Amino acid sequence: MKKILLVEDDDLLNKTLTYNLISEGYDTVSALNAGTAAGLLTQAEYDLVLLDINLPDGSGYDLCRLIKPENPDTLVIFLTANDQESDQIRKPQNRFLPGSGFWNGCGMRRKTMWTNTP
């Protein structure tokens, strides 16, 4: 089973996403801030981290920089409410690449999407 860490500070969004991921059969753990997420990352390995960029106690980018050296195969997808064009194209390595997969966190390398298969 794929293990997902969701890091989102909006409580309702965090609970909703966690509920939906669990309902789809993913082993999902959630955190409301970077500090809690950092602690969870020392306790288990995750296949995917869904990471909010704007967290109350730090930047999602900074948390990603902590994740990747220790867990280079962990995929990171950034979630954000930032809707300014400059936020979307500022860092090309963080953009979605339609049809061919995506760049995992911090622009390390491209991987294809995975599905939850038994």
Task: Describe this protein's structure.
Helix content is 33%, strand content 26%. It contains four helices and nine strands. A four-stranded parallel sheet has the order 2-1-3-6, sandwiched between helices. It has a three-stranded antiparallel sheet with strand order 7-8-9, with no helix packed on it. It has a two-stranded antiparallel sheet with strand order 4-5. Helix 2 (34-43) runs parallel beside helix 3.
Keywords:
9 strands; 4-stranded parallel beta sheet; alpha/beta; 118 residues; single chain; 3-stranded antiparallel beta sheet; 33% helix; globular
List the helices and strands and how they pair.
Elements: E1 3-7, H1 11-23, E2 27-31, H2 34-43, E3 48-52, E4 54-55, E5 58-59, H3 60-70, E6 75-79, H4 85-89, E7 96-97, E8 101-103, E9 110-111
Parallel strand pairs: 1-2, 1-3, 3-6
Antiparallel strand pairs: 4-5, 7-8, 8-9
Helix pairs in contact: 2-3
- List the strand order in the largest sheet: 2-1-3-6
Strand proportion = 25-35%
Annotation, overall tally of beta strands: 9
Q: Mean of the pLDDT scores?
A: 78
Low-confidence stretches: 89-118
Tell the overall outline: globular
Oligomerization category of the chains in this entry: single chain
Largest sheet: 4 strands, parallel
C-alpha end-to-end distance: 7 Å
Helix content: 25-40%
Number of helices: 4
Element order: H for helix, E for strand: EHEHEEEHEHEEE
Query: Helix- and strand-based class?
Result: alpha/beta
